[in-house]
Amino acid sequence: MGVQRIPAHRGSGWKGTRGTASALGLDDSATAFYRYFFDPETPRLGAHVRLLMLEGRPIAAQLGLQRDSVRYIIKIAYDEQLADLSPGQVLMDRAIEEACGAAEVTRLSLVTGVSWMRDWRPYNRPVMTHWLALTPLSQVLLGIWYCSYKLLSARNRRVRRTDAEGTPPPARG
Length: 173
Hints:
Elements: H1 28-37, E1 48-54, E2 57-67, E3 70-78, H2 87-101, E4 107-109, H3 136-165
Parallel strand pairs: 3-4
Antiparallel strand pairs: 1-2, 2-3
């Protein structure tokens, strides 16, 4: 079963045209990519499509990859008309249960880190960050911003740690 079986409700819900516009089927080139990558005849990079069926029709779906011992869930979809029954959550629960029981899986990555994932209390691990600067000036500005960000982040971690310990930060001078 391939991408063509995934419930893609173009104009409805938070993934529709009035929401994030990330629903499968909204962007023809993205849909073509998913169809190619998740073609059941020639799966690529451990690509898999997981479906939750009701009376012979898909009501929730997940697109995923498995690389080495890590299983990634990269795209989800569900029938918005059945949102009160939480078909996406039911399918996610099954995916977690399956991954926990699979000897070849050491980690299940939900990849995107969005708020609905908090129900499962996942461990947050940064995967990768890419920066693209097109001009020399933007490279310099990006470098300054990044260094400032890292310095402020380190300072804030120190302050939070000392606040948690109840000790004042060391005096500078």
